[in-house]
Design goal:
Order of helices and strands: EHEEEEHEHEHEHHHHEHEHH
Largest sheet: 10 strands, mixed
CATH architecture: 3-Layer(aba) Sandwich
Strand order of the largest sheet: 1-10-9-8-7-5-6-4-3-2
Number of helices: 11
Structural class: alpha/beta
Number of domains: 1
CATH superfamily: Alpha/Beta hydrolase fold, catalytic domain
Helix content: 40-55%
CATH class: Alpha Beta
Strand content: 15-25%
Distance between the termini: 16 Å
CATH topology: Rossmann fold
Shape: globular
């Protein structure tokens, strides 16, 4: 394993991150400050296109319609982006436009129950998430593809690569950004994980007042806007809220169990493609000590990059750093 930018060691960092998550649930999140700156399958599909920019849907075997965006030359190197909870493929717009400009083919789908995909009642678990991603990839017949997953999307991408993409020979590389593997919740096998009460609190907040909860979540720890001296950006907060509120409350509620309780250890052990693990050491949502630092040790071919003081939503707040680093890895 190659490691760049080693993170601070010791329990104090984990204690700070664990405290931030627990405080979020127990006491509620701070309100936003005024903005300081602006298996191979055939699937029926529909699509509409304008130039090289295509918007499509597929219907999986269990009848779930999955929305995806597919932009760029069809013969170019493809990059598939897997979004975080409770968002949509739109959360990758900055990365998709950046790599589109570099000549890549970029694809992002909305997870079932999220964004513009069908608000089905069933299948909100990592096995279905990975199978849905596989359905999109197989429909487009993508090969030699780089998969990039953020947060919950990192779990989805990990399971997809391990169980679908790598066995089919479709994957070139994997990138995990602020990702949930190997497992978030505290268990006998994972004693340093977050207590189940943290995730119960998220569920209670979602069920009690989803709209306010999501506004507070984006205004606070997701982007680090609750840190001293941070300058909340109203457009970023409102765009996060917009994406979250489009999705199904049922899917997002069930998704908390999927991202917190799924154990990806065996998936990580089976992955052999080069993998870049990127994480901010001030991630208040997915503590780095219990995620990236462990995943990088389990993976067979991992490069770990730790970003000092970067938040969970660093693909948005620090895109000018994240995007070039992604490009270097993809080109290498």
């Amino acid at each position: 394993m190659k490691v760049d930018f080693p993170s601070p060691s010791g329990t104090s960092r984990r204690d700070v991150l664990l405290g931030a998550m627990a405080t979020t649930v127990a006491a509620g999140l701070p309100k936003a400050a005024p903005a300081q700156a602006a298996q191979k399958q055939d699937f029926p599909s529909t699509s509409s296109s304008k130039g090289s920019k295509t918007v499509s849907t597929i219907t999986t075997k269990d009848g779930t319609e999955i929305f995806f965006k597919d932009w760029g030359p069809k013969d170019a190197q493809s990059i598939v982006f897997h979004h975080g909870w409770p968002l949509s493929g739109d959360d990758w717009d900055t990365q998709m436009l950046y790599f589109l400009d570099k000549g890549y083919r970029v694809i992002a789908h909305d997870r079932r129950g999220h964004g513009r995909s069908a608000q089905v009642s069933h299948g909100h678990d990592m096995d279905h998430y990975a199978a849905d991603a596989a359905a999109v990839v197989e429909h487009l017949d993508l090969r030699n593809t780089v998969h990039v997953g953020h947060s919950t999307g990192g779990g989805e991408a990990t399971r997809y690569v391990a169980r679908h993409g790598q066995p089919q020979g479709r994957v070139a590389k994997l990138v995990l950004i602020g990702a949930v593997p190997p497992i978030m919740v505290k268990t006998p096998a994972n004693p340093e994980g977050l207590p189940i009460e943290v995730f119960d609190g998220l569920r209670n907040s979602l069920a009690g007042n989803r709209a306010q909860f999501y506004l507070d979540f984006a205004s606070g720890p997701f982007y680090g806007f609750n840190r001293p001296g941070a300058k909340p950006i109203s457009g970023v907060i409102e765009n996060w809220w917009r994406q979250a509120m489009i999705g199904s409350a049922k899917a997002q509620y069930d998704g908390i169990k999927a991202f917190s309780e799924t154990d990806f250890t065996d998936d990580l052990k089976s992955i052999t493609v080069p993998t870049l693990v990127m994480h901010g050491d001030d991630d208040q949502i997915v503590p780095i000590a219990d995620s990236a630092l462990l995943s990088a040790k389990i993976l067979k071919s991992a490069t770990l990059k730790v970003y000092e003081k970067f938040p969970h939503g660093m693909c948005t707040t620090h895109a000018n750093t994240v995007n070039p680093d992604l490009l270097v890895f993809i080109r290498s």
